[in-house]
Amino acid sequence: MTRLARIPFAAEALLVLVVIAAFFAFPYNLAFVTRILIMVLFVLSIDLVLGFAGIATLGQAAMYGTGAYAAGLFAVHVTAAPLPGLVVGMVAGAILAVVSGLVLMRTKGLTLIMLTIAVAQICHEIANKARDVTGGADGLRGIRMEPVLGLFEFDFIGRTAYWYVAVVVFVVFLALRRLAAAPLGLSLRGIHESPERMTAIGAPVYRRQVLAYTLGGGIAGIAGALAAQVTQLVSLEVYSFTLSAEALIMLILGGTGRLWGAIVGTVLFMTVHHVAASADPFNWLFLIGFLVLGVVFFLPGGMIRLPAALMRLGRRS
Questions:
Q1: At what angle do helices 159-181 and 10-25 cross, to 10 degrees?
Q2: Which is one Gene Ontology cellular component term of this protein (predicted)?
Q3: Percent of the chain whose pLDDT exceeds 70
C-alpha cells in the first residue's frame, strides 16, 4: 500500500475497480455488499477519530444513529429526495459531535471512553422515549425514497442503492485522502503521537481534536443516513454499543490510521461474519475472536500490513 500511495490517484482507481468488480461478482447479493459499503463509511469515521487524532471512542454509534433518525424524519416529514436527506444526516451527526466533543475532548483515557458510551446510551434512551416522533421500540417506519437525482429509482434488487452508496463512499474516501495529506491531517497525526509535544510547539490541540471529532461525527451521520434511506427503516439498534464495538474491531483488523485498513477490516469482518454465522449461528464469534487474536499478536499493524510482512518473510527465507 505504501508504493500504491506514491502513484497519483492509484488508490482511488483501485477502489473504483473493486466496487465495479463486486457489482458483477455478486449481482444477486447486492444488499449485503451495500451494507458492507455503509459499514466501510462508518469505520472510516472511526479511523479519522481514533486512527488519525488518537481519540479513543466506543460511542461513535451516537452520531451514526442521529444521522439515521434525522434523515429518516426528513424523508417522512419534509422531502424524500435522497441527497438533501444525506446532508441533513451529516449535519445532525456533526452537530451532536461538536456539542458533545466540547466536553469529551477535555477528558482522556478510560473517562473519555466511558463518556462516549454514555452519550450513545443517552441518545438511545431519548429515541426510545420519544415514541411519537421516532416510533420508539417499533422503529421509524414510512420512509419512502424518491429516485436519486430524480432519475434512478430504488429497485428491488438493489442496483440503484448499491451505486448510490458506492459513489458516496468514494467521495468521502477521496476527501479523507486529501485530508490525510493536508496540514490538518498531519497535525492530527502529531497529536496522536504526542499531544504534549504539539502543545509545546503552539498547536491548538483541543480545538483540532474537537474539529476531528466533529468531522468524524459528520461522516458517521452520512453512514447512518445511507442506512436509513437504503433499508427505509430506523430502529433503536442504530445506537447500540455492539455497533460501535464491532466497527472498532473492524478497524483493528484492518489497521488504524490507514484508510485502506478500514476498508480491508470491514470487508474481512463482515464476510467472515456472514459465512461463519450461516454455518454456525451460535459460535461464529469464536472465529472472530481467533482472528482478532491472530492479528494482534502477529500483525499489530492490521491486515493492511500483511503484504509487507510476507515480503519480509520471503527475503529472510
A1: 160
A2: plasma membrane
A3: 97
Query: Position of cell 498547536?
Result: 203
Q: How much of the chain is helix, strand and coil, in % rounded to 5?
A: 80, 0, 20
Q: Is 251 a domain residue?
A: no
Relative orientation angle of helices 61-77 and 205-231, to the nearest 10 degrees? 50
Tracing cell 475532548 back to the chain, one arrives at 105
Over residues 39-91, the pLDDT tens digits come to: 999 999 999 999 999 999 999 999 999 999 999 999 999 988 999 999 999 99
pLDDT in tens, 7-46: 456 767 888 898 899 889 888 889 999 999 999 999 999 9
Tell whether 47 is covered by a domain: yes
Cell of 58: 466506543
Compute CA distances 8 → 5, 13, 74, 166, 181, whole Å.
Answer: 7, 9, 39, 21, 13
pLDDT tens digits, one per residue of 131-150: 989 888 888 988 888 988 88
End-to-end CA distance of the chain, in Å?
Answer: 23
* 282 lies in some domain: no
Cell of 169: 463512499
- Domain of 138 in residue numbering reads as 15-240
**Residue closest to 95 by CA, chosen among 263, 210, 264, 258:** 210
Q: Is residue 9 part of a domain?
A: no
Residues in the chain: 317
Angstrom distance (rounded) from CA 196 to CA 42: 29
Domain count, the chain: 1
Question: Around Cβ 153, how many Cβ atoms within 10 Å?
Answer: 10
Contact residues for 89 (Cβ-Cβ < 8 A; gap 6+): 67, 68, 70, 71, 74, 221, 222, 224, 225, 226, 228
Torsion sign (Cα): 44, 49, 50, 52: positive
Distance CA(21)–CA(174), nearest Å, equals: 19
- Radius of gyration in angstroms for the set of CA atoms belonging to the chain, rounded to a whole number: 19
